[in-house]
Structures are given as structure tokens and as C-alpha cells.
Amino acid sequence: MSPDRLATLSDQLVLAAILLYLAAMIGYALELAFGRVTETVKERRLVAVGGPSDDLPEPAPAPEPASWAPKAGLVGTAAMWLGWAANVGGTLTRGLAVDRWPWGNMYEFVVAMLLAAVTVFLLLQVRYPVRFLGAFVGVVAAIGLGFAVRVLYTQAGPVVPALDSYWVAIHVTAAVAASGLFIVGGVAAALFLIRKEGPSRLPSRADLERVAHRVIVIAFPIWTFAVISGALWADKAWGRYWGWDPKEVWAFITWVAYAAYLHARATAGWKGKAAMIVSLIAFACLMFNLVGVNIFIGGLHSYADVNN
Amino acid sequence: MTLTDEEKTTGTGPAGLGVVGWLRWGWRVLTSMRTALILLFLLALASVPGSLYPQRGVDPGAVARYFQNDPTKAEWLDRFSLFDVFTSPWFAAIYLLLFLSLIGCVLPRTMVHLKEIRRTPPPAPRNLARLPHHADIEGDLASAEAYLRSKRWRVTTGDGWVSAEKGHLRETGNLLFHVALLVLLVAVGVGGLFGYRGNVLVVEGDGFANTVAAYDRYLPGSQVSPEDLQPFSFTLKDFQATYIGPGHEKQGQPLDYYAKLAVQDSPTSPEREVTLRVNEPLEADGALTYLIGHGYAPTFRITGGDGKVAFEGAVPCLVNNTSTYESECVIKVPDAAPEQLAFLGRFLPSTVPNGKDWLSIFPGAANPTVQIWPFKGDLGLDEGIPQSVYDLGGHQNLKPLGQMTESPKPMAVGDVADLPEGAGKIEFTGVKEWITLQTTYDPGRFPALLASGAAILGLLLSLLIHRRRVWVRVRDGGVTVGGLTRTEGGDFGEEFAELTKALEHHARAEVKDVS
């Protein structure tokens, strides 16, 4: 196929991914809204036996669940996988169309980052009972992709010489992977804050906290690696490994904020809610680094290539 | 990281303890986790203005513009070092306190950890069924001990029990990570003290020798003397840039550029050819030279009113627009007689007419022309006030030559123009390109890299490994296994289940071997 046809196909696949993620979101949401409240008992498997969730009060007797609710969940899962496939296809065809790594500008980065987030969710779902996250990851992915297509879109094409380097494969891939994980962590942390104590259709706060912590613990070393590989690349490209360019500053702030979260979690008086809030602040820093720095501040990393 | 909070109090200070007591209290507060946490927040917060205000170390030109646009505000910002956030005293105060807090925590924890490593695992609790993980298995103590030892658990045995422990690497990794951060800070500091950075602009055909005088901008560390500079030199043979052609949304975006250099590592060494690219710097003796930017340098031959050639050479022009490379040139001809001459020029690499004006539509030099505005008078070079070679501003003694027009007809290469009032003539002889280079020497680079690698390794160990203990006890003829993870968030259940299965399996296998 010609590069132009591939680029068009990529755009169409990304649009398909948006619709499928929306469908997945609806399916998951229906299951969550009309399914069994007592599902939380099953979710407890996530917590070590004898963990804190054993002390939770038993959920109040729930209204009879709709018989079709589990099916809606299955439809959601199927749509999520299909959307994931479309997302993979979109990124892959984009890469083939431009003959380089398909995360060379902000549009491509956001598409790849959301792909990473959905991948993380789907992998988690295979191993752990985290279907409840589906509705929220689905909506984040759909809105994020929509934002990318509407605001960040840029025609497929080559990148500036500074970006034409094998470091894209290392540095940006790590940033994509870490961001995807952080998104799932952010969703879990937000649910933690939304959820009140007591019975709910969402799993217990302890479970939500565990999901958030687990993905952040994996993401943090990857993010550290992304920052360090960025420094290595900067050393090759700009003649210094660290120069306090705005993007570097915010990568550093994000790193420090997530480090603060990990410390907060181990500090008396900060466990639980406070630590979750810190993780959300860190997540906000990550998002600001992605959107804010590229669009409002600029600097050497201003490769967003966004048409204003 | 720090000692556990239970051992610390950050409440009110002790009363009447004297100087030593207060120092001790201060140290305890400083090294407490809560203080470390607050310092981390402060560090993040303090970095924010560094991204909002232009920084001298990053973009000194932007700082100068800020001063021009809003001098009062700029002065106040400067008073709080907001243009030098990352070298400011308050930023240093935060990270030094943080690292002090870190040292105060790493040292005692290292001591504790060394002791822990040498200690044998604690004896088995009486009732293993009370542990979070426990199971009754078929087996015996000897095979359990053998199995655990074969899987690299630390094992001790006692009367009717086996005790095993694993996962000290978690704390080792944790300490390694934090020590690596300290080393990283030192490496950055060493780089700042013993390294240097210099920028220079070189026109095609010209050379450069690595000396302080040759740089346009030179920023040495405080421990660097001019003799320390690596004695390399080079000549810029050629520079080539390619751009995306017409018909694409990104027309004019650079695709690739490279500079061909003939390099000598020292005055006596043989010449070598080096191709400099954006991500491929030149290395000479540990100093790295990077291709930072490029532009055009049209060449001129200028003759004074007396008929003598007063200037011949290339004039590097500042790029006004990076998508068309429309550039601004200033030519000063102090040697012109009877009166000194000066020119403002506008260089257009790919010229097309546009109504009464001309403009450049592409960064490549497809149809290079230059528009010239001539001046004569006193350049004021003898007044001893330093001038920029890139502007004519402030020369009250310069008078425009002839009728000044908004957009004079551009000259093509080879064109000669007679100046009004018999002041001489100017010939546009050709187009060269210039590049800007940055040379950096940073002896802290490699240590910083090693420290970063160690930090990642330590981080992975400390986040992914969990410290866990397992006990096997014979009681009332049955064998019970109990397990416990010492770290919160460790998912020991699965591993424990697998372990009990493996222990049973191992015991059965041994029985088979015996029979």
C-alpha cells in the first residue's frame, strides 16, 4: 500500500478505536450500574488474605441485579479488545506510512499513550478482577483519542532531524509506556477519591488503592528510565545531559511528585487518602508536561507539531 | 526514606535540653520521613518558576527581552533569582537540606541493614496458623530445609522447626538508589566546576581552534583555566541542509543537515574528516562539539568612494524566519574611504516577487537574493563601546544614502550596485552558509551516567523485591508452613501457595528416591 493510503487507513482506524472504546465504556458502565453490588466480595482476591478489606462491613442488601448485566460487561470487554486492535492498527499503519517510530509528534504520542493505557488495563483484567475500571479507562481513552484527533492532529510526515534518531525508540517508548501505566493509576486513584466508605458498586477503597499503587510502582522505574534515557539523548543532541528545558523541568517535577507519593504511602498520617491525592497531583504534573509544556511553554522539546 | 516514623517525633521540641538536645532534636526532625516528604514537595514546587520564566542558563536572549519589555518586574524577579532558579540559593537550600536529610537516613539504615544481613532468620513462632499465610502440608523438615536452601533462602533450623528468609535485596536496592542520587548530585557538581561550555559561529571555509578567544560565548566552570581547553581545531569544509519539498503540509521543514569538518585533535596530529550531524557530535579528547544551528552568510565585495576595495568576505545573517530562512544582515565597513559605510540587508534564499515586495518561500537557496539599504558616516567603532556585529542600532552619526525605500529591488548573485552620492559600490559575490556550534566538556558526564544506572537498578530492586519469611514446624505429627511478608503491598499469597506445593512435591520426590 502507498504511504498515503496507509496514512488514511491509520486515521480511520483511530476513529474506529474511539467508537469502540465508547461502546466498551457503555457496556462496562451498564454492567457496573445494573450488576451485582456484592461483586466486591470477589474482588477481595486482590488483597492478601487477611488484608485490611476483611474488616469492611458487609454490603447492604442490594436490589436484584439485571440478568443481562454480565452480558453487557462481556460486550464491553469485547469492544475494548476490538478498540485496542484498531488502536494498534492505527499506530502501526501510521508508522508504516511515515517509515519511522509512530510517536514522533504529540498526536502520535497521545494515540500511543492511550494505547498503552488500554493495554495495561486489558492485561490487568486478564490476571485480576478489575473489570470495574473498564468504564473509566474506556471513557478516558475515547476522550483522549478524540482530543488527539480534533486538536493535535497532524498530517503523516517526516520529523525534524533532531527527532530522527534511534533514541526515539528508547526514550519516547519508555515515556509512552510509563504514561499509559500512570493513566490507569490515575483512574484508580480518582475512583478512590470518588468512592465513599461503605457499600458501593465499586470495589473497596483498599482494593482501589492497591490497583493504583501496583501500576505506579511499575510505572515509576520506567518513568525514571525515560528521564535518564532522555538525558542520554540530550547529551547526544544538545550537548548537555540536563539543561532545565521546560520539558525537563516538568519531567523532573513529575518524577519528584511520584517519588513523594511513594514516600507518602510509607509515612504515618499520609497513608490512604492523602497519598492518593499526592498521586493525583503527580498525575496532573504528567499531563501538564504533555499538554501544557508543548502548547503553552515551548522550549527545545516543542515538537508537538500542532497547528494553531 | 528514613527511620520509621514511630521512632521519630516531629512535634514540639524538648524543653530545657540545652544545645546538644536541640541539635539532636533538629537532626531528628530533619531526617524524619515527614520532613523529607515536605522537602520533596518544595523541590517540585520550586522548579515550577524555572519553566515559566526564561532562564539565563537556557535562553539568555529571552531574559534580555524580558528586561527590555518590563524592566521593573524583571528587576524584582531577578532579585528572587527567578531567572536563575536552578542555581539560586533558595533552590540550593532545598536540595541540600533534602540530601542532608537523605544522608541522615541512609547512614543509620545502612548500619541496620548490615546487621540484618548477618543475622540469622528468627525462630519459628509457636503457632504458625496465626500467620497471614499458612498451610498444612505433607512432608518433613529435612526435605523442606534442603529445598529452601536450594532456592537460595537463608535458612536456620531449630528443635522441630525450620526458619527461612529472603528479600534482603529490597533494602540493598533501596539504599543503592538513594546513594546513587547522592553520587549523581556530586557528579553534576563536578561537571559544573571542572567543565566548560562554549558557543561559536563558523562560516563555510573558515576554521576554529579551541581557545577561549575563539568562542563567541564561553562559560567555564570555576575550576577551569584557559590552558585546560583541549587543543583541537577544525575547518568547516561544507554544510548541507535538505528540506521537505513543495506540496507537503510541512514544506520547508528540515529533513537532514550535516557539516563536513577537517579536524585536528592537536596541532601536530593528522587531519581527519568528520561529518557532524544533529545527533552525532564531534568528539575530541573528551570535549564534544555539537551542531546547534545554521544560516546564510552572503559574501560581498564593497568598494569605497576612493575606488579601493574596503571589504571582501562573508556576512553571517541572523535568521528571522526558520521556515523560509529570510535573514537579516548587517555589514559594517570601517575601512571605506573617504567615509565609512554600513549596510542593512535582507537575505532571501528562495525569492519570489509579492506585489511591490519580495519574499522567501523556502529555506533552501533556490534563488538567493539580498535587499540592501546603504548608510554612510561614522560607525563609532573608535569610541571603545562594545557593539554587536548584528545590528546598527544607536549610530546617530550614520546617514541613509540616497532615497530610502521600503523594499529595494533585490540583488542576485553577481549583481553590482553603485551607491548613491558616489560613495562607492557593492557587489553580491556569492552565498555561503554558517553553522553555530556548541562545545562542551563535562567530566561529570560518565559518573552521572553510572549513578543513573545504579539508581535504576536500586529502584527496581527496592520496588519489585519483597522481603518475606517462611517457617516450617512439626506439630502433633503434622507439618505446618507459615509465611509472612515484611513489606506492605507484597503479593506473597501466590508465591506462598506455589512454595507449599513445591515443598510437598520435593518431600514426595525424596521419599521416592529413598524407597
Automatic annotation (TrEMBL), chain A:
The chain crosses the membrane at residues 12-30, 106-125, 132-153, 165-194, 215-234, 249-268, 275-297. Pfam families: Cytochrom_C_asm (PF01578). GO terms for cellular component: plasma membrane. GO terms for biological process: cytochrome complex assembly. The keyword DNA-binding does not apply. This is C-type cytochrome biogenesis protein CcsB. Its main location: membrane. It comes from the Bacteria. Residues 103-301 form the Cytochrome c assembly protein domain. It is found in: Membrane. Keywords: Cytochrome c-type biogenesis, Membrane, Transmembrane, Transmembrane helix. GO terms for molecular function: heme binding. It is a multi-pass membrane protein. InterPro entries: Cyt_c_assembly, Cyt_c_biogenesis_CcsA, Cyt_c_biogenesis_CcsA/CcmC.
TrEMBL record, chain B:
It is a multi-pass membrane protein. One of its GO terms (biological process) is cytochrome complex assembly. It is found in: Membrane. Pfam families: ResB (PF05140). Keywords: Cytochrome c-type biogenesis, Membrane, Transmembrane, Transmembrane helix. Coiled coil: none annotated. One of its GO terms (cellular component) is membrane. This is Cytochrome c biogenesis protein ResB. It comes from Herbidospora solisilvae. The lineage of its organism: Bacteria, Bacillati, Actinomycetota, Actinomycetes, Streptosporangiales.
